[in-house]
Specification:
Keywords: NADP, Oxidoreductase. Residues 29-267 form the NADP-dependent oxidoreductase domain. The chain has 280 residues and is of the alpha/beta class. The protein has helices at residues 31-43, 57-71, 91-105, 123-135, 149-158, 177-186, 205-214, 218-228, 240-247, 256-263, and strands spanning 8-10, 16-18, 22-23, 47-49, 79-84, 110-115, 139-145, 165-169, 189-193, 232-233. The strands form 2 sheets. Strands 3-4-5-6-7-8-9-10 form an 8-stranded parallel sheet. The protein has a two-stranded antiparallel sheet with strand order 1-2. It starts with 7 loop residues before the first strand and ends in a 17-residue tail after the last helix.
């Protein structure tokens, strides 16, 4: 059980991944981004998640460097994730994309590198490149993002390394029960992006009721629900007080009934693209 902000889950290759991190989707390059990364690390976050397509790897790298220095931390104490974008998928182009991401971040290696979307006819070659990076010790763990069960099955038919992580849209309106069950069976760690449904759930009456019951915010209740389902979560925020508030979820526990009540909010509703039907 994750009882502390720096507690980790163990991936199937033995690598320790923090159960909670900062996401920076749609946060533009600039001081706000640098300060958000620094605030998170200062507050005790040890996991930062970015992607090539976010166009902010440089700012993330700067925030990491400044935070390490200011907090007397070593690079090894952080867990940094990035993702290969669709246009770069394929064997050679993925290897090149990895180098580009490292250069922008100013890092020697990543802790986790993901395929951002299951691009038909390409993701297997992309995975082969990730396996190469992994075997060469260039990255600690490799995984995928936005993969459905059938994508994972197709990938694993030819893979020599099983994905360690699958990062997907996951929140109380999209509980991904089948995918979570499959991931647990396979030893693949599920990770939630957009856990707060980009704020859409913050005025949900059922969740407001639970928040009042526990003396917590709706965001804290949802993020706690993630952890109790064994799902790693990376809420996005640029405000220091919100970054701190999001992480204050280790001093209470949702009952089984309340977990079930949140599960019951599922409508299989996405706010992001459908992994089976996207055109980018």
């Amino acid at each position: 059980m994750l009882n502390h902000l720096q507690d980790t889950v163990t991936l199937h290759n033995g690598v320790q991944m923090p159960g909670f991190g900062l996401g920076v989707f749609k946060v533009q390059e600039g001081d706000e981004l640098v300060q958000a990364v620094k605030a998170a690390i200062k507050h005790g976050y040890r996991s930062i998640d970015t992607a090539a397509i976010y166009g902010n790897e440089q700012g993330v790298g700067q925030g990491i460097r400044e935070a390490l220095q200011e907090n007397g931390l070593r690079r090894e104490e952080l867990f940094v994730t990035s993702k290969v974008w669709n246009a770069d998928q394929g064997y050679e182009s993925t290897l090149a994309a990895y180098e580009t991401s490292l250069k922008k971040l100013g890092l020697d290696s990543l802790d986790l590198y993901l395929i951002h979307w299951p691009v038909k006819g390409k993701f297997k070659e992309t995975w082969r490149a990730l396996e190469t990076l992994y075997r060469e010790g260039r990255v600690k763990a490799i995984g995928v993002s936005n993969f459905q069960v059938h994508h994972l099955e197709e990938l694993m038919r030819d893979a020599t390394v099983k994905p360690m992580v699958n990062q997907v849209e996951y929140h109380p309106r999209l509980t991904q029960k089948e995918l979570l069950r499959f991931a647990k069976e396979q030893g693949i760690q599920l990770e939630a992006w957009s856990p707060l449904m980009q704020g859409e759930l913050l005025d949900n009456p059922a969740l407001l009721g639970l928040a009042a019951k526990y003396g917590k915010s709706v965001a804290q209740v949802i993020l706690r629900w993630d952890l109790q389902h064994g799902v790693v979560t990376i809420p996005k925020s640029t405000k220091a007080h919100r970054i701190a508030e999001n992480a204050a979820i280790y001093d209470f526990e949702l009952t089984a009934e309340d977990m079930a009540a949140i599960d019951a909010l599922n409508e299989d509703r996405r706010i992001g693209p459908d992994p089976d039907n996207f055109d980018f």
